[in-house]
Amino acid sequence: MNLVIEKMTPEDWETVRAIYLEGIATRNATFETDAPGWEKWDRNHMQDCRLVARKGGRPFERVVGWAALSPVSGRCVYAGVASLSIYVAEAARGQGVGKALLQTLIEASEQQGIWTLEAGIFPENAASLALHKSCGFREIGRRERIGQMDGAWRDVVFMERRSQVVGR
Fold first, then answer.
1. What is the spatial distance between Cα 102 and Cα 109, in angstroms, rounded to a whole number?
2. Measured CA distances, 83 to 18, 62, 72, 80 (Å)
3. Nearest C-alpha neighbor of 54 from the set 115, 3, 105
4. Which element (helix H / strand E) includes 95?
């Protein structure tokens, strides 16, 4: 697959949002029920750690996945801890897009001084759990019945990755 990972731009938002909505529709990617508008999404995600995966010939035009970080807290002690979001278009799943995005996001996060990445993943999302484990994340716990979706309580597996470069 011809794939390039690069910084997300505001012009990518409509395709990024469409991929996010595909993930929401699976009911195994997030508790969210709708994707926000660009302004709200932009406010809540770190500027230097948002990526898109483009597939195709030259120029690489079609966005097939995205990944971004959000700060976990405004407190300075947690400045190096971020929460991860990663989504791959349905048509591109199982083709290495997620791994390429996650590996690049890890590198970008370390360049920004991030020492811990965290992810909350539904236990039914076996592909996401495997992806994160393959990139050095470890399960640190399970948040049982942490939220409701469609009237049913859902668990979330909490995973983290500690940098081997930053914060040592």
1. 10
2. 21, 26, 6, 10
3. 3
4. none
Work out how many domains the chain is built from and give that number: 1
Parent domain of 97? 3-118
- Report the distance separating Cα 91 and Cα 57, nearest Å: 17
In a domain, 27, yes or no: yes
Closest C-alpha to 102, from 121, 75, 74: 121
Q: Residues 64, 88: contact at Cβ < 8 Å?
A: yes
142 SS3 class: strand
The confidence score (pLDDT) of residue 59 equals 58
Distance CA 165, CA 147 (A): 34
| CATH label of the domain that carries residue 74 | 3.40.630.30
Give the torsion sign (CA, 52, 159, 27, 143): negative
> Could you read off the pLDDT of 5-54 as tens digits, one per residue?
999 999 999 999 999 999 999 999 999 999 999 999 999 999 999 999 99
Residue 129 in tokens: 């759990």
Confirm whether 93 is domain-assigned: yes
